[in-house]
Structures are given as structure tokens and as C-alpha cells.
Backbone:
């Protein structure tokens, strides 16, 4: 659609011309209930009044709106013909005055893709639930506006809703008959306005704080979810983490929470983890746990709660000018999520999770051909949508952790405090943050920023040890290499503040640190003089304590030690760092996949950190599916299933480790005996002491049974009858698509690629079930069909669904040079297609090429062993 993809240049031109004084938005969502007429999209009325100024009277500009129809447009009292000024995405505004009032009366469409105003009908009770989700630019699907982050303004919302509904927005609300009116917000960006409406279950609490000067702050707290999830909703724990986070940020930011109330809504069919709408944060409802989960799940939820809370300052109070500086909110929130998690909650091992899980996401993204600096070049809104990635979040957060080590925690936090006070309710760029950090640290931030924020790629750090005749260290150096991906484009060698740890085996077999030096690494080779004369180490761990962002490599002695004694590492963070490094070696085709799987089978049972253990399970499965030589997959799969079952039977009854091994066993199970065990655990003829097979675990067991043809459509229907809920429906759809039948695959393909009847959540579930690694031959015909369909899908569907289809259906399981050539042929033939679509295909193509290199490495290891 012309004009839908707003460019950076257009946004800058409009921001230079206009400033916005305020919005009044009136929505009528009573049409959300009742029968669907089937005549076009279901719509709601949206009336928007915008008051704004123009510094060049007589000039022209435009407002943004994505709507099926516009009833009326009025500019400064002049009625405009909607057919002449509205093209489907923009409203032309000509001959502007110095002071202007625009009124737009439109019919906007409810969404089923999670973009705009999403409408969900609960299959359990027929109730309708609404919520909005906008980032980066979908508020224009709900009301007319100037959709860019630097045209901030106060908002006043009014919502007409069914009588038995409650409505929430950013400000506090009051009900007058069927109309909810909300207090005017502070100046905020369009993408963080929010409305949630429906018969939600709602719990309240409050937070109080008395500051040193005697002022008192009271924040009303709310937490809400669908009625069907109320029995599972542990709102007390949500409120506990919320209060701990508010205390922590008040202690460190010296700027009181500025947005009045603090509601947190857990909503259905949500595309993201959460969204930082001030006063009304939205979360995916999967953070309400319907069955037993490990502490890693509670930690992840707490991290997300704190991440979104950090945004109240980094992102909402102070907002980036354009999406180039998205990192100014996301990197900071990702870092602050872990920082506050460790400093304020029961999850004191949060940095282990960060090192093992979040940074793995960053390392992958930073080695793709689409890698970009933390401060990215965002040309338009499609670019912005794709840059919510591992670099913007996890690499940026890792860089900030390095920054704290570089300037010191006190200087970093004082810089944040000055940043908030100086730019409150405004917009900033990179230079604004660097300026306050230079003031507080006394350091020149320019060179640091150029290396860490304005270049792409990840460095590798490798220890080089020279022993003297006495067996002690004569010299220990750290060798730094540039990115192994496209080194001509990303040759940067960065300054790193690192800790180098030396480890030795004790008489009882423990692998413990006996020496540590913190130093600055710069250039290709840095000598760590502080460690000269130390006893010879069994293991040298560069980046001990995870101070910097790098790929850790090992010298030969250290790698040999890990192969035999990884389980002996007593420090959980050091162990997590070594696991992460070994996984990177596997992905880089420097360690055979079968070796990594062997290490998991040998040592994962001794892993105490449950989050690390679950990450190891995911990596082991990925190693087998993508990086193992095809001829070894059956052997490796059998070994993983046998090992998982052995650990499951040995685990402490009722423990979270037992639960983690049960879930991993289900993913690895394929042999008849294993499938029979799963079936027996479901029907009660088999039992493992302490293992409670609750509803969520039942679905986890049913998917492999469906994928291997043991559970048919009738069995899945019976399970849905047992769990006739929205969650149950998603599980059933995934399992239905997993069945090993050509007709099943054809139906799933048609539902996702050729039809838009499914909601975003059911599209996601169908794609997840479709791509079973045990069904490579069955899926082979869809490789050419994928390349034939994706440009049409990208053009016809919303960007969210387009991303889901292009990423989720790429024929990665057809891991052959032929598929690689097909991807290259498509890229060559579509050089002029949407850059965002090309990026997605290029990334998937690179993952496939990496998998093929890994398979070659693994096959060579098999040949050598043979």
C-alpha cells in the first residue's frame, strides 16, 4: 500500500515541520461482541482529534491511518472529502495553519494478527477480549495520528464498551454508563499508548515509597488475565517482583515513577514477550503457568517484568528520536532486567542465565550476514520491525555490562540519573547519552562508542600460554580476532575489560579457580603480566565472570580438560560460560556435533542451574537436528533418548530437574519402546516416581506421539475435550500439524500460506507442528513451494504474519547444497524485493550454510573415529 512504510527521511521532515499539543481519541468497541456478519472485516468506530502546530503556515503534511474506511475528515473546521485525502494509509493535510485541529472519524478493523486492536474469542466460554499492540507503528490501525516516536504528546482516551466489560488505558479511568474516560497522559509516543478491554479477571494491590525528603509516592497496582486463567494466576508473585523492581529503580534512578498507576495485563495470542506501555504493561499470557514449571520459568517472567519496568524510564520517559537508536531503550532495559533481577529479587543467579541464554541469541545474530551495529541504520518501518533482534537487545545489554566495567557502576548510574532529568518527556540520540557518561566518568566515550556501538561483529578471545622450565606460567597472552563472518566488512578489534581465570583440578576432582587477573585487552595480542609465575593451569577461562561480549576460545590443554572434567567446574557461572563457548565452537564447525552431544550426555546430569540445563537440552537437540552428519543422526538420537530417560529415572522425584528431563525425553523419543512409555505415562499404565503428568506435560508427550503416528486425530480431539481452553486449542493445532501424513502437511500449508483464516497464535502453532525433524522426506516437496510463495505472502499479509511464515517455513530440514542453491537463486532473482523480506531469507540461508559446515565437520570426525 503506498505510504504505509514510513521512511526515516519522511519522519524527519514531518518532525521539523510539526509539533503536537495533544490527542483526544474516542473508540466504540461495542461491535466486538455479537455475531460476525461475514461482510468484510469486523470494525469499530474511531474518532480522533489532534491539535498540532505547523511552523511553516501554508505547508502540507500528512497523518497516518490504516483503516478500511473513513467517514469524515475535518481540518480547522473545513470538511474534507475522505475519498480525496485518504489513500488507505495516509491523510493528506494541505494549507496548514500555525495552529491546527484535525478530526478524523473512521471505521477501523479489529485484528487477528496481534497488530493494532486484537480481538480474541475464548473457546472455553465464548467471552471476547481486546487489547492493543503497536510497536513500532500499529497505533495507526486504531486511531489517526502522527506515527513516529519523536512527535510525543499528551493523550486522552475515551472508550465505549459493553456493559459487563472493564476497560483500561495508560491513565486512570472512570466509568460513566457505557463510557470509560481516562486521565490525560504525560507526553508519550504513539506506539506506547494502550487500551485493554473485556471481562478480564482483575487483582489489585498498591506500592508505597517515602523518599528521603519526606515526599510520599503511592502507585496503584493491578494485574489482569482472562477469566479462564484466573485459577492459575499467581498475582501475588507478580506483585512481589513488581514492588521489588520499583524499590530497586527508585534507589538507583533518583527519579520517581512518573506515570501514576501500574497495571500489568496478561493477554491472549500476544506476539511479543511484553510491551512497556506506561501505566499498562501488556504480557503474553503464557507467563501464567497452567502446570508445573521450573524456577527458570519464574526467573524468566521476573526478568520480563523488570525489563518492562526499566522502560518506564529508558524508553517511555526518555525516548529515542528514531528507530536507529532503538538500543537506547531495548539494550538498557535488557541490561537493567538482569541487573535488577540479581540486585532485588530471589533470582540472584540472573547473570548466569544472561551469559548462557541471552548472549547466545546475540552471538547468533551478530554472525549473520544481516549483522548491524548496535546503533543501526533504520531506513523505514520494515527495517525497524526486524531490528527487534539479538543485537539490539542482548548484544546491546552485553555492551552495557562491559561499559559498567569500563567506567564503573557509580559513574554509569549517575549518568543515567542526569540523562533522565535532562531529557524527561523528550527524545534523544546516541550523543545525548554519551555526553552525560563523559561528565560522570571523565572518560572520552567517543572511541568506546565507535568500537562497541557503531561497528558490527563479535570478537573471539583465545588464551596463549607459555610455560617455563619450572612448569609455571612464563607468559600468558590473550589473542583477539575479528568477526569470522565477512571479516572484510567487520574487522574491528575492540577494547575489552576482561577477567582471566586460571583453574586447576583438586585432589577430589573439582575444577576450581586459583588465580584471576582483570585487565584491558586491546589489539591483536595482549599480555596479562599479572599471571606470570602462576602455577600451570588445567583450564584458562578468558572472560571469566562474563565482563565483556566476546566468543571464548580455548587453548588445547583447556579444551582437553573440559572434555574430561567439565562437570567438575564448581563455579556455576564459569560452567555456563564454558558450555556457551563449546556451543559456539559447535556452531562454528570447530567442534563436531557428536562431541557436543557426548558432553551433554556425560555432564548435563551434574548441572545444578536449571536454566543452564534446559538450555543444554535445546542445544543438544539443535546439534542433532542441524549440525550432526545425516548418517549419525539415528545413532545420536537414540543416545540422547537413552541418556534422557536414564537421567529422568535417576532425578530426585518431584524435582524441577526431573521435569526438565521428562520434557527433554519427550523431544528425543522416537523408538517404539520410548513412545510406548510416553503413551503409558499418559494413560496411567506407566509411572515414574514423583513425576506429575499435568495437562501441559500431557501435551508435551502427545506431540512426539502425533509426529510418529501413534496419536491420531481422534486421540487429539479427546485431549482437547479434556482441555477445552485457548491453550488446549493451540496445543491441539500444533499436534494435528505434526502428524506424518502428506494430506496433513498439505492442509497445514494451505491454512498458513494460502489462507488468512487462522489467528496469529494458530499460525504459529501450525508452523511449529509442520516442521518435524523426523519427517524430512515428507516435507521435501515444500522447499520449492516455499520460494514460489514467500513474495506473495509478504505482499498480501501483515508484516507479523509475513515474518512468521518466511522464518518458520524456510526449508531448513532440507539441509542439502540443492536447498542452498535454491535460496541463492531466489535472492539473485529478487534483488529488488522488499529489503526486510530479503533479510529474512538471507538469514535463513546463512543458518543453512552454517548447518552444512557443521555436518561436514561432524562427518569428518566420524570418519576419523572409524
Residues:
Amino acid at each position: 500500500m503506498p505510504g504505509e512504510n514510513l521512511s526515516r527521511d519522511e519522519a524527519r521532515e514531518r518532525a521539523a515541520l510539526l509539533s503536537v499539543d495533544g490527542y483526544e481519541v474516542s473508540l466504540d468497541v461495542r461491535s466486538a461482541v455479537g455475531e460476525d456478519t461475514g461482510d468484510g472485516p469486523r470494525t469499530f468506530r474511531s474518532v480522533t482529534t489532534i491539535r498540532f502546530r505547523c511552523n511553516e503556515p501554508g505547508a502540507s503534511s500528512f497523518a497516518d491511518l490504516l483503516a478500511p474506511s473513513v467517514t469524515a475528515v475535518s481540518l480547522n473546521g473545513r470538511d474534507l472529502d475522505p475519498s480525496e485525502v485518504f489513500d488507505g494509509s495516509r491523510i493528506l493535510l494541505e494549507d496548514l495553519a500555525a495552529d491546527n485541529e484535525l478530526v478524523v472519524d473512521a471505521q477501523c478493523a479489529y485484528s487477528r494478527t496481534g497488530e493494532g486492536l486484537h480481538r480474541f474469542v475464548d473457546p472455553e466460554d465464548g467471552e471476547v477480549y481486546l487489547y492493543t499492540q503497536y510497536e513500532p507503528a500499529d497505533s495507526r490501525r486504531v486511531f489517526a495520528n502522527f506515527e513516529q516516536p519523536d512527535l510525543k504528546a499528551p493523550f486522552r482516551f475515551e472508550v465505549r464498551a459493553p456493559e459487563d466489560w472493564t476497560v483500561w488505558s495508560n491513565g486512570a479511568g472512570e466509568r460513566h454508563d457505557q463510557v470509560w474516560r481516562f486521565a490525560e497522559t504525560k507526553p508519550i509516543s504513539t506506539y506506547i499508548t494502550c487500551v485493554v478491554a473485556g471481562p478480564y479477571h482483575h487483582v489489585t494491590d498498591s506500592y508505597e515509597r517515602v523518599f528521603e525528603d519526606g515526599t510520599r509516592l503511592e502507585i496503584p497496582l493491578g494485574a489482569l488475565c482472562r477469566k479462564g486463567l484466573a485459577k492459575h494466576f499467581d498475582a501475588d508473585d507478580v506483585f512481589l517482583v513488581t514492588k521489588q523492581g520499583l524499590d530497586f529503580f527508585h534507589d538507583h534512578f533518583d527519579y520517581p515513577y512518573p506515570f501514576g498507576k501500574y497495571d500489568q495485563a496478561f493477554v491472549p495470542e500476544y506476539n511479543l514477550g511484553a510491551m512497556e506501555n506506561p501505566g499498562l504493561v501488556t504480557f503474553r499470557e503464557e507467563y501464567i503457568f497452567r502446570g508445573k514449571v521450573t524456577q527458570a520459568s519464574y526467573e524468566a517472567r521476573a526478568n520480563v517484568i523488570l525489563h518492562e519496568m526499566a522502560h518506564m524510564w529508558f524508553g517511555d520517559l526518555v525516548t529515542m528520536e528514531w528507530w536507529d537508536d532503538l538500543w537506547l531503550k531495548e539494550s538498557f532495559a535488557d541490561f537493567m532486567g538482569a541487573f535488577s533481577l540479581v540486585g532485588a529479587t530471589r533470582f540472584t543467579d540472573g547473570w548466569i542465565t544472561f551469559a548462557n541464554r541471552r548472549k547466545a541469541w546475540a552471538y547468533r545474530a551478530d554472525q549473520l550476514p544481516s549483522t548491524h551495529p548496535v546503533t543501526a541504520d533504520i531506513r523505514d518501518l520494515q527495517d525497524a520491525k526486524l531490528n527487534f533482534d539479538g543485537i539490539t537487545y542482548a548484544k546491546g545489554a552485553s555492551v552495557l555490562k562491559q561499559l559498567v566495567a569500563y567506567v564503573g557502576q557509580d559513574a554509569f548510574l549517575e549518568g543515567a540519573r542526569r540523562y533522565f532529568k535532562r531529557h524527561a518527556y523528550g527524545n534523544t540520540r546516541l550523543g545525548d547519552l554519551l555526553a552525560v557518561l563523559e561528565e560522570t566518568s571523565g572518560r572520552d566515550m567517543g572511541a568506546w562508542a565507535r568500537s562497541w556501538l557503531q561497528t558490527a561483529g563479535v570478537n573471539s578471545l583465545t588464551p596463549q600460554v607459555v610455560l617455563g622450565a619450572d612448569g609455571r606460567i612464563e607468559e600468558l597472552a590473550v589473542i583477539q580476532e575479528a568477526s569470522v563472518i565477512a571479516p572484510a566488512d567487520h574487522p574491528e578489534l575492540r577494547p575489552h575489560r576482561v577477567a582471566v581465570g586460571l583453574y586447576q583440578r583438586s585432589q577430589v576432582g573439582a575444577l576450581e579457580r586459583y588465580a584471576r587477573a582483570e585487565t584491558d585487552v586491546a589489539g591483536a595480542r595482549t599480555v596479562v603480566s599479572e599471571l606470570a609465575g602462576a602455577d600451570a593451569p588445567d583450564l584458562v577461562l578468558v572472560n571469566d565472570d562474563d565482563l565483556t561480549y566476546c566468543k571464548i576460545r580455548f587453548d588445547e590443554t583447556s579444551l582437553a580438560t573440559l572434555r574430561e572434567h567439565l562437570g567438575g567446574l564448581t563455579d556455576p557461572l564459569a560452567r555456563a560460560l564454558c558450555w556457551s563457548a563449546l556451543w559456539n565452537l559447535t556452531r562454528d564447525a570447530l567442534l563436531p556435533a557428536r562431541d557436543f552431544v557426548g558432553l551433554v550426555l556425560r555432564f548435563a546430569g551434574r548441572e545444578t542451574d536449571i536454566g543452564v540445563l534446559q538450555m543444554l537440552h535445546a542445544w543438544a537437540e539443535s546439534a542433532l537436528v542441524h549440525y550432526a552428519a545425516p548418517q549419525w543422526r539415528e545413532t545420536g538420537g537414540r543416545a540422547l533418548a537413552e541418556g534422557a530417560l536414564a537421567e529422568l529415572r535417576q532425578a530426585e522425584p518431584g524435582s524441577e530437574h526431573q521435569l526438565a528431563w521428562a520434557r527433554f525425553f519427550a523431544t528425543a523419543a522416537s523408538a517404539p519402546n520410548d513412545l510406548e512409555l510416553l503413551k503409558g505415562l499418559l494413560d496411567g499404565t506407566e509411572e515414574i516416581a514423583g513425576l506429575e503428568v499435568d495437562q501441559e506435560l500431557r501435551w508435551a508427550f502427545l506431540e512426539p506421539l502425533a509426529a510418529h503416528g501413534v496419536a491420531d486425530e481422534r486421540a487429539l480431539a479427546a485431549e482437547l475435550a479434556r482441555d477445552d481452553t485457548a491453550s488446549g486449542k493451540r496445543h491441539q493445532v500444533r499436534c494435528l500439524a505434526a502428524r506424518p501424513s502428506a494430506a496433513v502437511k498439505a492442509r497445514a500449508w494451505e491454512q498458513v500460506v494460502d489462507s488468512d483464516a487462522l489467528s496469529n497464535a494458530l499460525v504459529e502453532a501450525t508452523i511449529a507442528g509442520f516442521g518435524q525433524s523426523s519427517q524430512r522426506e515428507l516435507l521435501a516437496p515444500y522447499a520449492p513451494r516455499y520460494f514460489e510463495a514467500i513474495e506473495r505472502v509478504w505482499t498480501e499479509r501483515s508484516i507479523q504474519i509475513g515474518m512468521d511464515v518466511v522464518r518458520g517455513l524456510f526449508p531448513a530440514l532440507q539441509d542439502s547444497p540443492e536447498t542452498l542453491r535454491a535460496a541463492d537463486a531466489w535472492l539473485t532473482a529478487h534483488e529488488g524485493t522488499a529489503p526486510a523480506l530479503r533479510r529474512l531469507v538471507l538469514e535463513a540461508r546463512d543458518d543453512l550454510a552454517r548447518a552444512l559446515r557443521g555436518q561436514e565437520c561432524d562427518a569428518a570426525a566420524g570418519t576419523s573415529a572409524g
DSSP finds 28 helices and 28 strands in the chain. The longest helix spans residues 835-865. The mean pLDDT is 95.
